[in-house]
Amino acid sequence: MLKLKNEEQIRGIRESCRLLSGLFAELRPLVREGVSTRDLDEYTRTFILKAGGRPAFLGYNGYPASLCVSVNEEVIHGIPGPRKVKSGDIVGLDCGIDLGGYFSDAAITVPVGKVSAEIEALLRTTRECLEKALAAIRVGGRIHDISRAVYGHARSRGYGIVRQWCGHGVGFSPHEDPQVPNYVGAGPNPRIVPGMVLAIEPMINLGGDDVETLDDDWTVVTADGKPSAHFEHTVAILPEGPEVLTSW
Ligand code: MF3
Ligand code: CO
Which ligand is nearest to the CA of 58? Predict the structure, then answer.
């Protein structure tokens, strides 16, 4: 069911997104050689609790941490642990905050030290996919306009596009309708209307489209073991057009 948000509710979600953006500004410089993925999760939990929020992912469907940390071939939902990142790695950080019942969601992929030119291009293109997705949003348009923008750009560069996982509505809970796929399929294609709040999140692979879930039941990895990038914003649809609520 589509749950549209009124102005006051969008203000609440905007506040949640502002807090999340502040967290990302602090997290990014911490992603350096030698930091453990658990360090990043602990920083995140402390930051959110101190600000009066609640880590939205912690305990969500049993997820055990406040931050998803996905390294290299891990696409999404990596579980933080003792692993230390090293130069040449790319580190996906995905987080959501519940602030007074209003939910935000954003993600970035951060290079550690010097990464290969091929990986730099993957990160750049994935960011561009998100920019093109945002630019494709029109009140009265359709969700698949977003999907088409992501898919078209990623394919034009020869990358794989994750199909099993999608963007989504957000705001009253971490995941709501509608689904926002990164490819145009046969699924529902609702009209974009004021009051929607969407998490738009291209997941783009250096190799093929296919992904698998590890035995921990969470970590999604590329089937071919090649690196994957992920960027995500929360966007409110206002009568005058989209407002990107998160920043990194
Ligand atoms: N941010 C993820 C998404 O965009 C949600 C993570 S769900 C959790 O869909 F269970 F891992 F917390
Ligand atoms: Co999301």
Answer: 1
Averaged pLDDT, 25-30: 98
Helices (H) and strands (E) in the chain, counts: 4, 15
Could you tell me which residues come within 8 angstroms of residue 198 by beta carbon, excluding any fewer than 6 positions away? 146, 167, 168, 169, 170, 178, 180, 234, 235, 237
Which ligand 1 atom is nearest residue 60's CA? 10
CATH code of domain 7-239: 3.90.230.10
Residue 78: what pLDDT?
98
What's the pLDDT at 52? Answer: 98
Domain spans of the chain, in order of start = 7-239
Helix-helix angle 143-156:117-135, to 10 degrees = 150
Single pTM value for the model? 0.98
Confidence label for 80 from pLDDT (cuts 50, 70 and 90):
very high
Q: Which residues' Cβ are closer than 6 Å to ligand 1?
A: 57, 60-61, 63, 68, 77, 94, 96, 105, 174, 199, 201, 232
